Amino acid sequence: MSCDFSGTLVHAYFDGELDAVRAAEFERHLENCRDCTATLGAAESMRSTLQRAQLYETAPANLRRKIRAELKVSSPGASSSSIAAWRWLAVAAGILLVTGVAWFAVPRMGTTSMTSSVTSTEILDAHIRSLQAGHLTDVASTDQHTVKPWFDGKLDFIPPVRDYMDEGFPLIGGRLDVLGERNVAALVYGRRKHFINVFVWPTKEPDTPIHPPGSKQGYQWVHWRHQGMEFCAVSDVSAQDLHELAQLFIQ
Amino acid sequence: MSATGQGKGWDVLDSQDRARFEQLVLPHLDAAFNLSRWLLRSRTDAEDVAQEALLRAFRFFRGFNGGDARAWLLQIVRNTCYTWLEKNRQVELMTEFDEDLHQQSSATPEALAIAGDNRERLARALDTLPVRFREVIILRELEGCSYKEIASITSAPIGTVMSALARARQRLQRALTQPAQQEAPREL
User: Fold this and answer.
1) Min Cα separation B130/chain A (Å)
2) Distance from CA of B125 to the nearest CA of A (A)
3) Whole-angstrom Cα distance, residue B34 to residue B106?
4) Is A96 domain-assigned?
5) Any residues with CB less than 8 A from the CB of A91 and at least 6 apart, and which?
6) What's the whole-model pTM score?
7) Which of A159, B37, B147, B188 is 20 to 30 Å from A1 by CA-CA measure?
8) Could you give the number of structural domains in chain A?
9) Predicted ipTM of the assembly
10) Domain B109-179 has CATH 3.20.20.70
């Protein structure tokens, strides 16, 4: 007899697509289900097989050249006077990103101060998890006076909550989340049809400016510290939008 | 839709758009080529189609809302591939997508590990999958896309992505453990 989950949920679990609660539930199921355990083992083995085989085929150099020529874009390294200075800044920020991520992803070495001890992977996972059905908000309200008191008593700090509807970032609600083993507040904002999670937790570190944007798998994030709070905004909207929202928080 | 023709259509974007395109979209050329190669099962065809897709993306770039550039590009690449397949290899698109779900594979992880040491054999097994199964495997396992990204690239609900992946993995596993003569003939 085949378990129904072995054709569905076990794959979502394997691909890290279940939220924390459902993943934990599924792990309990796994303990007693041979079908799902076998499917999981096969999927894992398949993945490492595919990775070992190096099947990824990169674009041939002549295709790259042809496209660049046809689009008349500058070749890498060649300077183009038509590009505004801020674009070069953006490129520079992209280069800095590598350093930035390294700094931001300070390993969690069992410290209790937990300031910058959250990795980008954890932030992204939390964001993706939140987008799954029914998990985006614990309190759904566009009213900051409803969302802010809701956190009272649920966390050992009170996050700053404000609606930025007029600036194009309507408050959608709030949620409790867990990052790097500590409870954090997640504030949810809308941007056109997209969602932005702003994770907030207290810190003893001094204020830092809005961190150069990070990007992974199509998601962007920015990070900053302000008045004893640490913030990370993450979304699939552009880094520019995130920066704009971050600035509203600092004002 | 852009009203520009094939030849000098690229003037529709000003230099700022051009720089943005270069910065946001061009870095995903490898992803575009890789997806085309596996959807079309040919490097030569993939070169043509990936190029066409990039040029289309450039033309439609004004409509890009600043979200996930890779997913946006791959959606265009996929559509371009399907259009090409419809024109050149219609039979492939009609390949049975539904198949017996309950047929269990006897593959053990050990057997797969042995098969995997052979890149050729693995590539051949992948190429025998129907294109809709092949694409979810490529997007998930080679490109590392999330279900949400795959859903937007393939214009399918997330639930469909999950079940397609489940079945694709099962099919691939079966293709790998099947004797070679039972594999579907491969188009050259």
Assistant:
1) 18
2) 11
3) 30
4) no
5) B23
6) 0.55
7) B147
8) 2
9) 0.80
10) no
